[in-house]
C-alpha cells in the first residue's frame, strides 16, 4: 500500500507543531557567544549563538528586543531565554529569544573592547606599522601548543607547499593561567633565532574566555613590537582577538597561516625559470645590439684610424710628389725647347749671321747706327771677329734719303 504523499508545507507545519508541543524545547535558556548580529529596520534582531562546537540561528522580535537594557554585539557572551521552533517558509530550525542578559563573560568582552580602543588610539594597530611577509623564509617559527591540530595543520600545509622548509616549534601554553606569559616568552625566543624569518602564533577555536590569553596587553604589545613579521592564527574565522589586530597578518585558520608564510615551491621555481628565461632573451638581444654597435664603431674607427689616415696622406703626398716631378720635368723640357727656339730665333734675329755673311755693324754708344745721316763723329765697327773704332770723314746719302 502506497503511503500518502505530503506537501513540503504540510511536513514543515507538522515539525513546527511537534517542536512547539515538546515541553523540553520551551522556556529554554542558552549560553553562547553572539555572532553575525543584525538589527533589521523592523526592530527584529537576527543573530547566531555559538560555542566551540556548534551554533544555532536566533531571532528576537521587536517586542522583546525593545526591552533589552544593553546593545548586543558580536563576541558578547549572553544568556538567551526562549523556545525552539521551525520557520516553515524555509524549513529552518531556529531559536526564538524572549529575554537576554549578559553572561559572566560579558564583562570580559567589555574589557576586550576597552583594551582594543586604548591600543587602537595609541596606533598599535595602524597599517603603517605592519611588516611585509618574506617571499621565501629560511625557516618558519611557530608558537603554539605542541599537541593538537594547529601544529599538525601547519606542518601538513608546509610540507605540501615546500617539502624541505624548516618549521621550528616553540611549544607554549595557549589557555589558562600563565598562557599569556608563556606565549610572550615563546615569541621572544623564536624571534631571536637568526634563520627564522616569519612567525606564526595561534591556537584552535574556543570561547572568548578560552582565547583570552591572546587578548593579554603585554602579549599584544610584544607582537606589535616584534622585529620579524608575525602571522596571527587564533581560533576560527569568526574568532577575533587583539593579537589579530597587532599581528602583521591575520589568518582565518592555522592552515591559512601556513599558506601565507610558505610559498609553493613549484610556483616559485616556475617564476625563477620564467625570470631567467626573460633575462636570457634580454641578454641575447642586448648582446646582438652591442655586437652590431661594436661592428659599426669598429668600421668608423678604421675609417678614422690615424695610421690609415697618415698612410693615405703619405700615399697622396707621394702621388703629388710624382705629379710635381713629372710637371717639373715637363716644364723643364718645355722651357728647354722654348729656350732653344728662342736661341734659334735670337740667332737668326741677332747680328751673328749678318757678320758671318761679311757684313759689319756700326755701333754708337752700344746701339746700332742704321742711317748714314745719324752717324756720329766716332763709332765702332763690329766685325765677326771683333770691332774697330773709327772717325767719320764724310757722309754720302743715297738718292731716296736725299729726297726725304
Summarize the structure.
The protein is α/β, with parallel strands linked by helices. The protein has twelve helices and 14 strands.
Q: Could you describe the 3D structure shown?
A:
44% of the residues lie in helices and 22% in strands. The protein has 12 helices and 14 strands. The radius of gyration is 62 Å and the shape is rod-shaped. It has a 5-stranded mixed beta barrel. Strands 7-6-8-9-10 form a 5-stranded parallel sheet, with helices on both faces. With 404 residues, the protein is α/β, with parallel strands linked by helices. Strand 1 (28-39) and strand 2 form a beta hairpin. Helix 4 (149-161) runs parallel beside helix 8 and helix 5 runs parallel beside helix 6. It folds into 3 domains: 8-103, Nucleic acid-binding proteins (OB fold (Dihydrolipoamide Acetyltransferase, E2P), Beta Barrel); 126-263, Succinyl-CoA synthetase domains (Rossmann fold, 3-Layer(aba) Sandwich); 351-403, no CATH class.
Using the alpha-carbon principal axes, give the shape: rod-shaped
What profile does the largest beta sheet have? Answer: 5 strands, mixed, barrel
Multimer state: single chain
| CATH H-tier superfamily of the largest domain | Succinyl-CoA synthetase domains
**What Rg, in angstroms, do the CA atoms define?**
62 Å
The domain count comes to 3
Structural class label: alpha/beta
In whole angstroms, the N-to-C terminal distance is 187 Å
Mean of the pLDDT scores? 87
Amino acid at each position: 500500500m502506497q503511503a500518502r504523499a505530503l506537501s513540503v508545507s504540510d511536513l514543515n507545519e507538522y515539525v513546527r507543531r511537534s517542536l512547539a508541543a515538546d515541553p523540553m524545547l520551551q522556556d529554554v535558556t542558552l549560553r553562547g557567544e553572539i555572532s553575525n548580529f543584525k538589527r533589521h529596520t523592523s526592530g527584529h534582531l537576527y543573530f547566531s549563538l555559538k560555542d566551540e562546537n556548534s551554533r544555532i540561528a536566533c531571532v528576537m522580535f521587536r517586542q522583546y528586543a525593545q526591552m533589552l537594557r544593553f546593545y548586543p554585539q558580536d563576541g558578547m557572551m549572553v544568556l538567551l531565554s526562549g523556545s525552539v521552533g521551525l520557520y516553515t517558509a524555509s524549513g529552518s530550525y531556529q531559536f526564538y529569544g524572549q529575554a537576554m542578559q549578559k553572561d559572566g563573560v560579558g564583562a570580559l568582552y567589555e574589557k576586550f573592547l576597552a583594551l582594543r580602543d586604548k591600543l587602537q588610539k595609541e596606533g598599535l594597530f595602524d597599517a603603517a606599522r605592519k611588516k611585509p611577509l618574506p617571499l621565501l623564509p629560511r625557516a618558519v617559527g611557530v608558537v603554539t601548543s605542541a599537541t593538537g591540530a594547529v601544529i599538525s595543520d601547519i606542518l601538513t600545509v608546509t610540507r605540501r607547499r615546500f617539502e624541505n622548509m624548516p618549521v621550528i616549534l616553540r611549544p607554549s601554553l595557549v589557555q589558562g593561567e600563565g598562557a599569556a606569559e608563556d606565549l610572550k616568552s615563546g615569541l621572544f625566543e623564536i624571534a631571536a633565532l637568526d634563520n627564522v624569518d616569519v612567525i606564526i602564533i595561534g591556537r584552535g577555536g574556543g570561547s572568548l574566555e578560552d582565547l583570552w590569553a591572546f587578548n593579554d596587553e603585554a602579549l599584544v604589545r610584544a607582537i606589535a613590537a616584534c622585529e620579524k613579521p608575525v602571522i596571527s592564527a587564533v581560533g576560527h574565522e569568526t574568532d577575533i582577538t587583539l593579537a589579530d589586530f597587532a599581528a602583521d597578518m591575520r589568518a582565518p585558520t592555522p592552515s591559512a597561516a601556513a599558506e601565507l608564510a610558505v610559498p609553493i615551491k613549484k610556483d616559485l621555481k616556475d617564476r625563477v625559470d620564467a625570470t631567467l628565461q626573460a633575462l636570457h632573451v634580454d641578454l641575447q638581444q642586448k648582446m646582438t645590439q652591442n655586437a652590431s654597435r661594436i661592428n659599426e664603431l669598429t668600421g668608423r674607427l678604421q675609417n678614422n684610424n690615424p695610421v690609415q689616415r697618415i698612410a693615405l696622406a703619405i700615399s697622396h703626398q707621394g702621388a703629388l710628389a710624382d705629379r710635381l716631378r713629372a710637371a717639373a720635368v715637363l716644364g723643364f723640357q718645355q722651357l728647354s725647347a722654348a729656350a732653344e727656339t728662342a736661341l734659334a730665333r735670337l740667332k737668326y734675329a741677332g747680328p751673328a749671321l749678318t757678320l758671318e755673311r761679311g757684313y759689319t755693324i756700326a755701333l754708337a754708344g752700344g746701339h746700332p747706327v742704321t742711317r748714314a745721316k745719324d752717324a756720329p763723329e766716332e763709332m765702332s765697327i763690329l766685325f765677326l771677329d771683333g770691332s774697330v773704332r773709327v772717325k767719320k770723314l764724310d757722309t754720302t746719302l743715297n738718292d731716296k734719303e736725299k729726297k726725304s
